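Model: You mentioned two targets. I'll fold them one after the other.
Researcher: Yes, keep them separate.
Model: Target one:
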Amino acid sequence: MAVTQTIVIVGAGIFGLTAARELRARGWRVTVIDPGPVPTLTAASTDISKVVRMDYGADALWTELGRKSLARWAEWNAESGQPLFHHDGFLVLSRGAMQPGGFEFESFQHLTALGEPLERLDSATLAQRFPAWAAENYPDGYLNPSGGWAESGRTVAWLAQVARHEGVQVFEQCAFAGLLEKESRVIGVRAKDGREFRADLTLLATGAWTPTLLPELSKVMWATGQPVLHFRVTNPAEWQAPRFPVWAADIGRTGWYGFPALADGTLKVANHGPGRRVHPDAPREVSPDDEPRFRAFLRDTFPALADVPLIGTRLCLYCDTFDGNFWLDHHPHRPGLCVAAGDSGHAFKFAPVLGDLIADAVERNPDGMHERFAWRTCKTVSSEGARAR
């Protein structure tokens, strides 16, 4: 009779919980610890919304993972009985004609070749269909009806509930203190309250804290802070799909993206860029320069939003890898230790397939994508990965 393998997972974010469910389904005995409560307020997974898309330029791997994820998001909606994913579409616009080599052009070409029913847009069509936009500033782009957004914090809470039902032990308010080791092997973890959790394998799914906990990774991944601002509109219906779906405004060059308004009028705008390096335990404060920068963008792109009230800010932490690819592998020099990190600001959309990817790495099941996510050095940088985000 086969002996049941055990694993302790540190971190109950989107990496940790999806891995926990999949490993449990494969027969592992799974324990998860998190400083919690889950969802943890400081975790990148804990937010009101995340973009879900398959648009990744010419990158075949990310595109295929995005397509698979979109199908499974629909399954999660059915399984949960709640709208974790909102199928509102994804509006991708350019401030000039889409050009070869650019994110917008390459995404359009690649997805069209795959048979996706994209709708090409010009300024006249944009003004008619999506009147909030300063259409003269965005003469080219497309609508991908297959995209949308996920209620990320709600998704994490649901995953934790389902994982428990499936037999995963989830310990909240249980902060990680250190690794337990016997000779040269990691044999579990110690919590700050003194409890010990021993297992055959230990998986660190610790997001932006990973390079702090494992300093040997600090040259290939780091925590960065990205600004997110929440505004309030008084007429939410006018700022919701189909008139106002998830959007990207020349994102390949500017980093601007955002979401439809929530029912209470909250409208989220964010910028995806280099960010600034931060310590994950430092105060989460956006720069004083961010609000004026955001308002200048709104004035130029959505004039009616230029002076709407600001109701909140968030510094969203990425765990950026040097090439933009995830980091899913066994530690090469510390037997018994695995790492699932390196979200690089684009992991949440893949939540329904993340568990499979991580579990395959844990079980050493190589496939065509393992090289992209394996333990590596900067000398093996993938140009496709670096472009992917």
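Model: Target two:
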Amino acid sequence: MRRATAQSWPAKPIRLVLTAPPGSSIDVLGRLIAGELRARLGQPVVPDNRPQGGGTVGTDTVAKAERDGYTIGLSFTGPLALAPLLYARLPYDPARDLAPIVLVGSAPNLLAVNSALPVQSAREFIDYVRRRPGQLNYASVGNGSSSHLAMEMLKAQAGLYLVHIPYNGAPPAVQATAAGDVQAIMSNPTSLMPLIRAGRVRPLAVTSAQRWPGIKELPTIAELGYPGFEAVAWNGFVAPAGAPREVVERLNREINAILQVPDVRQRVEAAGWDPVGGTPEQFAAYLKAERTRWAPIVKRAGARVD
């Protein structure tokens, strides 16, 4: 197959694998950037949602795609950093099979509960769960996601027994919480804010090191007596390992430029994400650091998917 070159690429539409379902933050950000890329590259960037397996199916799809620059993916914390720590048989190795392009955004998780749960604060929630070991459920946006591991970290540090119910993406997970099928969730602001505004779920705390500007009155979990607690969600573009270097560099330049467009930046921030950007090398270093940071947490929590 003729490899892409800086002069000839792109000569046809580009497939963008989105590793989460329609309506998720990955879907929203991916489609926003895809539209901007089309104008800059002169070719359609076609979204393809592959949310199964907590995003591992879509990420594996990218890892096994042709290395010609015509398949890229927008993936996130779980499939890129946490899955190798959780799955005994993961069909891809993120460090070996994927080429980082650019880190797009980061966001805290919010700890939220169904509005009917009789707790008004995170401290009340922790006490409530402690008095009912194994009687309450929490939703995550998928096995191995930051939504899953952030709650497992809280369980380990606070001595809680909550039953994990994984869903296939944020939309069904937050809806299950709002409906009372589960009692609690940790998820990013993009998915939770509409239900918070509607009064169907109640936010209690934030998992970042500092308070979140979107709801400044929410305490951090570290403030509750768990120093050092931090569990942010993030996402970024990847290509199959071995994709042409000039294509990776071109996509990196274009996406960095897109993240600086005032309207795009405003829409990303309105969705609850902090735009990041940077070089492929910086994204690669961040991925390595995240895997190293989470490894002892996963081991301590005893979290496994299979």
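Researcher: Noted. Anything on target two?
Model: The longest helix spans residues 280-301.
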